Amino acid sequence: MTDSERIRPGLSGVPETLLLTLWARYRSTQKPNSLLTDPKAAELVAAIDYPFEQHFPAADGRSDVIALRSVAFDREISAFLDGHPEGTVVCLGEGLETHFWRVDNGRARWLTVDLPESATLREKLLPTGPRQRILACSATDHRWLDEVAAANGVLIVAQGLLMYLKPEEVHDLFRACAERFPGGGFVFDTMPKMWVKASAKGQDRDRQGMRIPPMYWSQDPGKLAGLHRLHPNIAGSRRVPYPEFAASRTARLFSIFSRIPLLNKLVPGIGYLQFR
User: Fold this and answer.
1) pTM for the whole thing?
2) Is residue 172 a contact partner of residue 144, using CB atoms and an 8 Å limit?
3) For the segment 72-88, what is each residue's pLDDT rounded down to a tens digit?
4) Count of helices and strands (H, E) across the chain
């Protein structure tokens, strides 16, 4: 692909973070001992006109952590598809994540819900197939719930999204999904309170000075059970640990910390809500 054919993303703020997670997956998959297999990430990086290396330092241990997070979400989606082979996977704020190409079973339906600028970029770079749809809509605009085919089971996936929403918006989203998708599930990642406070003060920056958007919602992984009170259809909750294998010291620490109750609130976590 020539330079003139590459696509300029034209993103800023929260939507621009999709480029960070894409670069992280790409960097991690270049390592011989990576746990993540994501050939689409290399294709996407090659197709985008963006200074990845300048904005996102190659040696940053964050890359392996983000790759581990993607693997953990892959496993939850695969487990859902094992039990609901013709179910619907709804990815909120999906950006350029490539779960579909990594774990699709050939029968499920996939719905991406994302902000218009992110949805437009995804449509250009990752054209949809007959079982995929992209809806340009904020996750907080509950009209997207009407677009979900829920008859064969639903899994809601929110990776790298909820921390950028206000707490009341997150709770409203949980309530709406619990009400509309009985028997479904919701897998999402969480940020520690101290990380959220640092982002609000402008202290959370990439080594080259990229401004990380302010975060608002934090959740202690040890207190997921408290989310039951949001709606009677929230039947249970659990922590999703990072995979045990880790390619770098930083990723190994995240994996270990996620399994220790007194330490898991110090690192980003992953939670799962089960609806009645």
Assistant:
1) 0.92
2) no
3) 999 999 999 999 999 99
4) 9, 7
